[in-house]
Amino acid sequence: MAFKPRLTEKTITLKGGDIAAGSFVLWRASVPCRVMAVRAYRVGGTGAAVNATKNGASVLTGDLSVNAASTWVPGSLAALANRRMQAGDTLAATVVSVAGTPTDLTIQIDIEKDANF
After folding, report:
1. CA 38 vs CA 5, 60, 79, 94, 95: distances in Å
2. Cα separation of 16 and 86, whole Å?
3. Minimal CA–CA distance to 85: which of 107, 56, 51?
4. 81: Cβ–Cβ under 8 A, 6 or more apart, which residues?
5. Widest CA span of the chain, in angstroms?
6. What is the pLDDT of residue 114?
7. 111: confidence class by pLDDT, cuts 50, 70, 90
8. CA-CA distance, 53 to 44, in Å (whole number)?
9. d(C-alpha 36, C-alpha 28), whole Å
10. Pairing of strands 47-54, 64-65
11. Of the candidates 69, 53, 67, the residue with the CA atom closest to the CA atom of residue 104
């Protein structure tokens, strides 16, 4: 039986001049799914490094450097086994570091839900 996968995203936007390193739980997977993309966008400051985790383990090959301001920067995804989620897994966005004083930092994680996982 063929069907179309469902797509969703989980996003966090941190605002203000006091953005600091930290981890932010975004979602508990309710069904099997996989992370399809991680992107970040920074306003102000001179840089930031972010990541995304599944149960504390990175879904990227390394931290995502957001060196260009006001531009969506894509992360390099880890192997599928690191991005596949089961019901009950926890997805979090992590600010690893910031440089300067960013006024906005957005992390978007795209997810594909599909019963074939």
Report:
1. 18, 8, 14, 11, 13
2. 34
3. 56
4. none
5. 52
6. 73
7. very high
8. 25
9. 16
10. antiparallel
11. 69
Residues comprising the chain, all counted: 117
Residues 6+ apart with CB under 8 A from 91: 10, 25, 26, 27, 28, 29, 35, 52, 53, 54, 85, 109, 111
Other CB atoms closer than 10 Å to residue 49's CB: what's the count? 18
Beta carbons of 82 and 36 less than 8 angstroms apart: no
How many helices, marked H, and strands, marked E, lie in the chain?
1, 10
Euclidean distance between CA atoms 61 and 117, whole angstroms: 22
Tokens of 31: 């069904």
Mean pLDDT of the chain: 93
For 33-59, how does the pLDDT look when each residue is reduced to its tens digit (9 = 90+)? 999 999 999 999 999 999 999 999 999
Query: Taking the model in full, what pTM does it have?
Result: 0.92
